[in-house]
Specification:
Two copies of one chain form a homodimer. Chain A is α/β, with parallel strands linked by helices. Helices cover 36% and strands 23% of the residues of chain A. Chain A contains eleven helices and 13 strands. In chain A, the strands form two sheets. In chain A, strands 5-4-1-8-9-10-11-12-13 form a nine-stranded mixed β-sheet, with helices on both faces. Chain A has a four-stranded mixed β-sheet with strand order 3-2-6-7. In chain A, helix 2 links the parallel strand 4 and strand 5. Chain A is globular and about 50 Å long. The two termini of chain A are 34 Å apart. Chains A and B meet through helix 7, strand 13, helix 9 and helix 11 of A and helix 7, strand 13, helix 9 and helix 11 of B.
């Protein structure tokens, strides 16, 4: 089934201990769409400037992504420059230029109104709610957010949390929303604020999904998927968005939302995140084979599988 | 088979957000012995002062632990006072008094010389090597260490690493020994220094075992065991030692060291660590039932089990 992502399509410039990327294609919706494209048909809604040319668009088109929802405006695309030090879990932002993204007002075109799976990447929660309301027949809605909205736009964020089925955030964000240093308690507090499922991404330790009691009819026990220890993390940018793409993409590809589907989605999320960090930008996500994905999935399973 | 632990038997005083413990029984060897006692016969070598009375000894004796290797000396037992703030992964040390532990010179009595499984808890690596050499027929030797020895006694530590089969440390210690910010690379570097297996404990994220190529004839793929997200971490003291006790205890209880045995040992380690933190000191480890342990083991398995 079709999966729609609304978020940033942008340019990045990344420095890490493995070198410098130069100006490359980036953005949450880009990572998400590429990762999800290995599982289902993906549609993108975003805004870009004059610097986004056919060359960039073809990166998505080659993966079968429907780019007709990308609005072209006069000006520059969103740009982010960052640097990763010894701790690859923390990026130092060197430059941010919103460009045309500053006036992003996503509208779902008529032809996308049949979309059943929706992912609201990290944008203003007011826009996230607007988009969600334009798609009342969506079956499953996932969303992301970040510290900027948690700290400065709390009422809007609280509203957004009531409009989504699954929130995908990291440890620090979960604790920040809950105002609690305990991850386990934070999970329960965030679930009480709206989403039926909460996926907390632990970086190199994997990710855990927590459920509200009886959510989706699949009980309330949490489930954790690992990631393989990676020696060469070239560029951690987009790992979380790639996780979300693998996760939502796999769910959208399945007829029913069972506990097993959720579990496998968590593993596929980890798999796509682990590929994303192996090269600068979206390079690794552009040319994967299904065989590579299946082999890593099997390796992840073996990593924690007890007879 | 008998499992011998050499390390501290001590008193602790712990403050956490759940209250204050008062002066209670602690020490790495104590936590280890209690956790391991649910799987195999345990022997302890330690030194204590006059303050260690029959009341404390009975805590171990009631769990079937052989305490005849605990040497009583004139003076005070090792004492540690600490406080856990909002971040339960970091203790603030308020007081340390070495007492008779300052002259600890562990000797293995003749009757313990048939021991096949040995755990060298966190003590001076010179003493760890001395003990290991007194037990040349040991089948499997595990060891622990800490930042103090890593930074200040490097040559002795390097020697110790060549004398053990499995090193059990946490993320920060692994990176410190390797001098590398990447956990995956650090694991390979530490393995190259001696141990055939390296168990890295990730706190609330579980633990991963890395193997040297072909170690124990069970390949080189790592294996990760999770821990359940715990909402009420009353006292994290001894969690790592309890992990080690469950891990080594289970291995000592099995005839052969297969990959499946190693995997289950990792899970049992996580199980015992998770019980330890639920109450102050060793309280929770004193009165567990095999049923409680098996139920939590099943819950841990379900947490990551993919069909």
């Amino acid at each position: 089934m079709s999966l729609l992502v609304v978020g940033s399509v942008a340019f990045d410039s990344v420095k890490s201990s493995f070198g410098e990327s130069g100006r490359i294609l980036g953005g949450a919706a880009t990572y998400f769409a590429l990762a999800a494209s290995y599982f289902t048909q993906v549609r993108v809604i975003a805004v870009v400037g004059d610097d986004f040319t056919d060359k960039e668009e073809q990166v998505l088109v080659r993966r079968g992504v429907d780019t007709s929802g990308i609005v072209h405006e006069k000006g520059k695309s969103f740009f982010w420059a960052g640097e990763y030090g010894e701790n690859v879990n923390e990026a130092k932002t060197l430059d941010t230029q919103l460009g045309v993204f500053g006036n992003f007002d996503p509208q779902i075109p008529e032809k996308f109104k049949d979309t059943k799976y929706l992912f609201l990447a990290n944008i203003d929660p007011v826009l996230q709610v607007n988009v969600r309301k334009q798609l009342p027949t969506a079956k499953f809605v996932g969303g992301d957010t970040m510290n900027y909205w948690i700290n400065g736009h709390r009422e809007n964020l609280n509203h957004m949390l009531k409009e989504i089925d699954a929130l995908l955030i990291n440890d620090a964000e979960a604790k920040m929303i809950a105002g609690d240093p305990s991850l386990a308690r934070s999970a329960q507090k965030v679930l009480a604020m709206g989403p039926r499922a909460l996926v907390i991404k632990h970086g190199e330790y994997g990710a855990t999904v927590f459920f509200r009691d009886g959510a989706f009819g699949i009980g309330h026990h949490p489930f954790r998927a690992p990631t393989l220890p990676i020696e060469k993390v070239t560029d951690p940018t987009g790992a979380g968005d790639s996780f979300a793409g693998g996760f939502m993409g796999y769910i959208a590809s399945q007829d029913k939302l069972t506990r097993e589907v959720f579990k496998r989605a968590m593993f596929y999320g980890g798999v796509m995140g682990s590929f994303a960090v192996e090269a600068f930008g979206t390079e690794r996500l552009q040319n994967l084979s299904r065989k590579e994905i299946d082999e890593r999935y099997a390796a992840f399973r073996e990593l924690t599988h007890l007879e």
